[in-house]
Amino acid sequence: MNKNTINRRDFLSSAATVGAAGAFGAGSLLASCGSGGKTPGLIPLIPETQWNIPASLPDKAKDGRPLKVGLVGCGNRGTGAVQDLLKAAGDLSVVALGDVFQDRIDNTRKILKEKMNLEIPDENCFTGFDSYLKVIDSDIDLVLLATPPAFRPLHFKAAVDAGKHVFLEKPMAVDPAGCLSVIASSKKAVSQGLVVITGTQRHHERKYIEGYKQVQSGLIGKIQYADIYWNTGSHWYRFKEKGWTDMEWMIRDWGNWIWLSGDHIVEQHVHNIDVVNWFLGRKPVKATGFGAHLHRNTGDQFDMFSVNYLYEDNIVVHSMCRQIDGCTNRISEFIQGTEGSWSNEGVIKDLDGNVLWKYDSDREKAEFKQTSGFVLEHVNMINHIRDNKPISQAEDTAVSTLTAIMGRMSAYAGEDLTWEQAIASDLNLVPGDLALTDVDMSKYAVPSPGKPTGRKNNQR
Question: What is the pTM of this model?
Fold first, then answer.
């Protein structure tokens, strides 16, 4: 087999070790916060040498050779990611931009000029579906990929094939085929000595990292159960405007279309799912989910999902996400163990509700100038590049992405779905031919699980 390909058996084997540290170091990050490390007498859940955390997170990346950067995807997230990167390190220059639409490039150039005093020359700004290739082929060392997730696997493969370091926004893909492609590219990236960091900023928030260390040290005992939520108001949307083709409309309204975003359980709720996979150090065995489309103004997605994930060792995770106005909002993670619980508030309690450990956010602010995970993920990336230490977070994040896809597939079908069934699926949502034309919109119908009962007037 070609060393740059991956089959399903290899994927299952690698996914089972999602919690392994790889190129990450263990070590103390904020020893002065909380208890700051292992508590004597506790039994670690994962050996400390395998803890999946950065070795250090200083305010700013170390000095080193100048790096040229390209951005593919000039929407709000891409424009924000470039600014976060420039806050993370010195000797960086943004030299190329790419997007399907010229107005998005114009907006990014304007913001970079006003806020960062950077000017990108016209000849280094590229439009169209092939703009990613032109950015990658520019004289750059690092590329930021921040288009709608549907394009992530294709763009990532091209960047790795060209030998570029990569920052990948989450999620990694919208379907199993895309996840498998990302995992193959991730393995190749490491073999080529590249650095790949993903936009799961919670992995770079000190509060999460210190909580992870306490949980892995055994402070809450053996993990039994978890609750994760991303319940918010309605998502942004755009109605079709005069002069737009169907394809242009969907891409400009990408957060509401399954094939572009993966639905909000994948595009947004993957953050919470990724935290659980990270803390558990394993993948789910089965998903049982449901959801519904009620109030969305555009697109073919669900407004809500509720999924029960069964993990190895009979650990149950309840996953809930919703995008509806006028409801109670909640974004959180909670993990229950045999001896206590951890929450994303940075608190560990015993079974009686007594606080055993609490992250000291005030102390962090006193000791560090930079506390944003959006910036610190770039600090970690630049330090790896300048230290010549290969790393790729893409494989772990692809497993979390596929976990979210697995829940979506279960909800759409109204059936239980196993991990093996998910990765064996031939589901590929991305159209083969991409062009800014009108398309058959009947292909983009809202999923409808189950069958009609035939009952009328609520008769029983």
Answer: 0.90
